Amino acid sequence: MLRLAWRNLLRTPGRSLTTGGVVALVVFLSILFLSVYGGAMDAFFRLLLERTGHLVVRVAGYRDLEDLDRLAFVPPALDLPPGAQVEGVLEGVALVIAGDRSRPASLTGLTEPGFLRQKRLLKAGRLPQGPGEALLGEALARALRVGLGEEVVVYAPGGLGLGIVALRVVGLLDLPETSLEARTLLLPLADAQALLAPGRVTRLEVRLPEVGLYQLAPLEALKARLAAGLPGLSVETWLEANPTYAAILPLYDVVMAVYLGFFFVLAGLILLNALYLSLVERVREFGLMAALGLSGSQVMALVFWESLLLVGGAALVGLGLGLLLYLELKEGFRLPFPQWILEQYREFGLPEVLYGRLGVKEVLLTLGYSVGVALGAALWPAWLARRLEPVEAMRYVP
């Protein structure tokens, strides 16, 4: 049966090569798409993880609280594995004054590692290197008409701290949104605590260098252990701390399957057309085989084998070419976008260089679609071939 199916494919080499080429192209593009898509998702979630840390400790019920005195807490000692890093962050609101101008701002007190993560957003100047220095959003600096080296006064009455502090602007930030840029003030954590809440933070960020991007099991275990010893505080994983973005992760497989399904449906239609034309051209041959004793099931099997051989060979070619390209992509590639798009991309903190990612699951999904298309496209022609009456088929004139 296999030899007969192979012989039938070779009888129309032009059609077989064209149809197989389409299938190979679809498989190749699927591998390319999955590699780039996986790399882009990794870059996005890695950025999210970098901003929040693997675990975040806050006051319990913080989403429903607004007062700083209820949101701020004295950072407790955490029982963490070796190599773990903890950073305190203090957030609040204040009025920024420069001469006769003033603007409300959201201020964030950071430690040195936190400032280093802002370096790619630095439009001018440098990062703070000591107390009394600050970074302003570029739009906020324009509104206040202050530049590098000039002084601003930050006024935040009603808190637990001094309520007022003078800061020197040493750097300007270029942020993705102008509205965010117009209210951003970053200052050293010690200055923020002196201004708002001495010795307190509004969150602790725990970073675990040994834990991978999607390794959630060790995070859940550490979260449960920490939560048991932190009454009044909540511990969240980086996904729980970003519920909107966390909803994207479960949709990854769905979106991936839908996109691939669209490509393979198009390939299936072309394959169906090729198999149907082959059936029409060989009606008399099928009738003769049935007259010689070939059963209806065997006729259907012959059509299915032809489809599987054609798609299988083409899929292996496309897969081989796709894997060769993936080996290049996983070493890093730049997005082929115009410069103005890349500038927007950089403003969101996303890297220009992505690294392709392709797992066994993605390869099996592609091959599974290939087999599904081969069987699905052959179903109708095989059913028609089975219903042919030998006598009528042998009288058929195309």
Output the number of helix runs: 15
**What structural class should be given to the helix and strand makeup?**
alpha+beta
Distance between the termini: 25 Å
**In percent, how much strand structure appears in the residues?**
15-25%
Shape: elongated
- Rounded to the nearest angstrom, the radius of gyration is 32 Å
Largest sheet: 6 strands, mixed, barrel
Helix content: 40-55%
How many DSSP E strands? 12
Task: Walk across the major sheet and give the strand order.
Answer: 2-3-8-5-7-6
The average pLDDT score comes to 85
Order of helices and strands: HHEHEEHEEHEEHEHEHEHHHHEHEHH
What does this structure look like?
By secondary structure, the protein is of the alpha+beta class. The protein has two domains: 2-46 and 249-395, no CATH class; 54-237, no CATH class. The protein is 53% helix and 18% strand. It has 15 helices and twelve strands. The strands form two sheets. Strands 2-3-8-5-7-6 form a six-stranded mixed beta barrel. A two-stranded antiparallel ribbon has the order 11-12. β2 and β3 (101-110) form a beta hairpin. The chain is elongated, with a radius of gyration of 32 Å. It starts with a helix and ends with a helix. The model has no long low-confidence stretch (mean pLDDT 85).
SSE topology sketch:
Blueprint: H1 2-11, H2 13-52, E1 55-59, H3 68-71, E2 85-98, E3 101-110, H4 112-116, E4 122-125, E5 133-137, H5 138-144, E6 151-155, E7 164-173, H6 178-181, E8 184-188, H7 189-195, E9 203-207, H8 217-228, E10 233-237, H9 243-246, H10 252-281, H11 283-291, H12 296-329, E11 333-334, H13 339-347, E12 353-354, H14 360-387, H15 390-395
Parallel strand pairs: 3-8, 5-7
Antiparallel strand pairs: 1-9, 1-10, 2-3, 2-6, 2-9, 4-7, 5-8, 6-7, 11-12
Helix pairs in contact: 1-12, 2-10, 2-12, 2-14, 10-14, 12-14
Membrane topology: Multi-pass membrane protein
Domain MacB-like periplasmic core: 23-209
Subcellular location: Cell membrane
